Amino acid sequence: EAGVVQSPRYKIIEKKQPVAFWCNPISGHNTLYWYLQNLGQGPELLIRYENEEAVDDSQLPKDRFSAERLKGVDSTLKIQPAELGDSAVYLCASSLWGQNSPLHFGNGTRLTVT
Amino acid sequence: GIQVEQSPPDLILQEGANSTLRCNFSDSVNNLQWFHQNPWGQLINLFYIPSGTKQNGRLSATTVATERYSLLYISSSQTTDSGVYFCAVDANTGNQFYFGTGTSLTVIP
After folding, report:
1. Which three-class secondary structure state does DSSP give residue A20?
2. CA A19, CA A65: separation in Å to the nearest integer?
3. Residues with Cβ < 8 Å from A23, sequence gap 6 or more?
């Protein structure tokens, strides 16, 4: 089966510009996650979806970050405007049913804000 | 949130050696997973192991939930085992997986 697909793989933007990341989870996976990974650290959850419902977005900086998962399949994460501190790897993951099944990650998008 | 500590932080092995990585967590957990992040950044799920022992080839894992730790064993290490190993735990609140800071493994030929 195809894995979690993310695009773009790399993105370089200037500060104050908008940026968007796209994720297509494994077919049939109901739960989708967006994680942020800074250099030398473990991933940190930004938002979790069960189907099309955001069930945990407590760590999403809502003043500049937004996400959507239309039709409960693929998802987009947007930053507007980007700041220097947003430079990181943005990882998408999916699981069959929430926390009670293995997480599968995409390759991530490496964002550099200059 | 729950605290997840991994040890050792860094490990260098000669090819063919065995190793044990440890993950300690500060509270009761529903689930625990081990991941390998390769040098290209891809995170691969190794084990989904809330309790007990599982084996997959040269790798095995044991979680003792009552004592709040998990171990990942790597036997006959290969250079392709290099990378960072993370454990991630889901506390009983069931809200999210918390990742540890990882163990960076380098296997030299």
Report:
1. strand
2. 10
3. A4, A5, A6, A32, A34, A74, A75, A76, A77, A92, A106
Q: Which of A39, A6, A36 is nearest to A21 (CA)?
A: A6
CA dist., res. A37 & res. B42, Å (int): 12
Of A44, A99, A107, the CB nearest to B31: A99
Closest-CA distance of chain B to residue A106, Å: 7
Q: Which residues contact B11 (CB under 8 A, 6 or more apart)?
A: B19, B21, B103, B104, B105, B106
Using CA coordinates, name the residue in chain A closest to B99. A42
Closest chain A residue to B89, measured at CA:
A99
CA dist A56 and A33 (Å) reads 9
Interface of B with A (CB under 8 A): 4, 30-31, 33, 35, 40-45, 48, 86, 88, 90, 94-97, 99-102
- Residue B64 Cα, gap to closest chain A Cα (Å): 18
Sign of CA dihedral A80, A23, B46, B98: positive
User: From first to last of its 109 residues, what are the pLDDT tens digits of chain B?
Assistant: 789 999 999 999 999 999 999 999 998 888 999 999 999 999 999 999 999 999 999 999 999 999 999 999 999 999 999 999 999 998 866 668 899 999 999 999 9
What CA–CA distance (Å, rounded) separates B75 from A15?
A: 46
